[in-house]
């Protein structure tokens, strides 16, 4: 018999969740109206880029040259673009590649293999990305919104609600800036081989924001990341789009012809707990989210990831592992993979790490049901860069206030 374990209920600590008129946690799907960021090459489709170049008074083929500078050489600096006519070059480049992200702060781990960037957007909004070197791959965790409207009680990002959607180019620029840093040797050189050709290989949309709430811009960003002729040319498989469960958008994603890796941040297999843990569950229930995830697999043939943060005495009970396994198996075999993610130990908080033995038991039970399961590494936690913890602190705000808008590189 399984010993009876306590049930800790989700609650915010040190802040109050905004509620709607019915007393439920407020969900914000629409982006507040704010000044839009300047239009950038990466916001545009290839033919629109040509049209814009012509509008700015140059022949259309200049668009291709700019694509090369920006997506291959990671530069927006007109001084380095000597293949463009010198007269009017600065204005032309400023019109096509306006500065979008100003670096406010950079935090590195001791070994220099994890770097967290804090960026200021044109309107002062702050977002973050985290760059991580692993053996054989380099992963960048990107933000897709400033703030977030999903109001999860454990998540620092959601506290202030949604500031605004990021533009496609603001999302892409995080990748280009990371690639520039890698090319300059800023992410260490463990093999001593130099940095030729080294760049970000994997993207996870697990920074600030709910990517599927900013659907069109996230899709444009993904297209640019994967376009081999007019973009960065990454493999779609290396790109993970995650969601807390916006079901209509998951179904739409399945219909796009881009085989990204899809991850559902489930965190609880039962509606009773998930309604409190992930407020959007009040809109789309566990079963609906799993049905949509299964449909994604059927449509794309790509195995789905289920993300599950293990929180002590809240969602880490053995019966929940069994229930999760049953709900996944009820929708077929071989279509899904579960990633339990251990939280940081946070003494005194209800949001703290499960005991090691409990983590192991959770994994064992899923595996016993035939579900492939991998306990994930939570790299980045020592610099507070683990997913779901991304928030600008007051210190960051001060640092941002002291930063002038930088030049175009
Ligand atoms: S956990 Fe994700 S979806 Fe929930 S509030 Fe935070 S950023 Fe938004």
From TrEMBL:
Specifically methylates position 2 of adenine 2503 in 23S rRNA and position 2 of adenine 37 in tRNAs. Keywords: 4Fe-4S, Cytoplasm, Disulfide bond, Iron, Iron-sulfur, Metal-binding, Methyltransferase, rRNA processing, S-adenosyl-L-methionine, Transferase, tRNA processing. The gene is rlmN. Reaction proceeds by a ping-pong mechanism involving intermediate methylation of a conserved cysteine residue. Residues 1-38 are annotated as: Disordered. S-adenosyl-L-methionine binds at residues 209-210, 242, 265-267, 344. The lineage of its organism: Bacteria, Bacillati, Actinomycetota, Actinomycetes, Micrococcales. The keyword Methyltransferase applies. Its main location: cytoplasm. [4Fe-4S] cluster binds at residues 148, 152, 155. This is Probable dual-specificity RNA methyltransferase RlmN. Its cofactor is [4Fe-4S] cluster. It is found in: Cytoplasm.
